[in-house]
Amino acid sequence: MTVSAFDLFKIGIGPSSSHTVGPMRAARRFALALRAGGRLGEVATVRVDLYGSLGATGRGHGTDRAVLLGLMGETPEEVDTGSVAERVAEVRGSGTLRLLGERAVQLRPSEELRFLREALPYHPNALRLEALDARGEVVSGRTYYSVGGGFVLDEEEVAAARAHPAVPPPVPHPFTTAAELLQRCRRAGLSVSALMLANERALRPGADVQAGLVRIWNAMQACVARGCETEGALPGGLHVPRRAPRLAAQLRARHGGDDPLGALDWVTLWALAVNEENAAGGRVVTAPTNGAAGIVPAVMHFHRRFSPGARDEDMPRFILAAAAIGALYKTNASISGAEVGCQGEVGSACSMAAGALCEVMGGTAEQVENAAEIAMEHNLGLTCDPIGGLVQIPCIERNAMAAVKAIHAARMALQGDGRHFVSLDAVIATMRETGADMKSKYKETARGGLAVHADAGLVSVGLPEC
Questions:
Q1: At 454, phi and psi to the nearest 5?
Q2: What global pTM score does this model have?
Q3: Residues lower than pLDDT 70 in the chain
Q4: H or E element in which residue 367 lies
């Protein structure tokens, strides 16, 4: 399997890559398939069932909104985030939606969009869409799985993958394990980022690769800037206040000072800014998911501001090195909180950020692997237990904590020579097995952990349907 940096780092909207971005893409695919098959004009009603984790926490994650927007033809990359609330309210009020902006059909979210706790076999994030004609007969029906990070598979793709595993496109330096990655770096005399760059250039023109990496970094910076300036409470019913603007003002008011840990306050700010934007449904970059979107950009900002000799040219290298590590998690374990808990989201992002920071600070490939291993080793078993099913508590603070942990892991690795007892491959395998052993109530269902033991007044908040 060849996982590209542009698979793992995608510009989209919050609050969740698996519960918002993926379902939006699935719904749009369904509508496009109706058009391609010449069946759009037959549709009178659309019915949507959300299963498993999508059914359990879909309201808090905006899954219902995402599905409606996808059916309208919107994409996570291009949708006008400022118009989402108004457009969804119009559908709820009228009970009518225009498929791909063309065909008016009946869709009453309170009746035709159902949240079901039942899980389907392949993956806990599943949704089924059905188009019905005026007689109530099914015109078309399809099941999709949102497998984390915005990746979507339909039932036919799942069956095909099981029967005939896909042959990845040829790249000059293929790898599926960290051991292979290190071996290829040694043989080619390349850093992790340079090896990843060579692979990316085999998939698309080199100019497109560079432009794409810069676009990702620019989107991250824009997200941080918006998060530092936008005040108010986050949507969803918990009334969580945004903290980034106040913290930004406090840090900007500081003049010098001798606080040896002052840089960590800035890291906290940058992570909070991104994840508050994500929780508000703003434009973010999956890194590798939305729930963990603040970690990589916070560490990138840390490097740019506080590392001696850091340059903007380091940022594409940072993204490439992080993507190489993220590809290992995507290939050999999971980046889905609904599948393996938050160790798959925050843990993977922390590992990616640690390894990438180690590289741009001058680390060898062996030190990069060590940094990534340290970061995940100390995220093993991390549960996904969002209060009220919202990507707010503990998710926002968790990004800030993991960003600091990534910096620490990178610095620890740089103090050694790359030799260590536990390999990155071993810790990835451990993460996968730990996720398999984890009870479902700790995997993005809001039925365990903090989601049920936090203040009862918060847990019992009534959440809106859309």
A1: -75, 180
A2: 0.91
A3: 1, 166, 256, 455-466
A4: helix 365-377
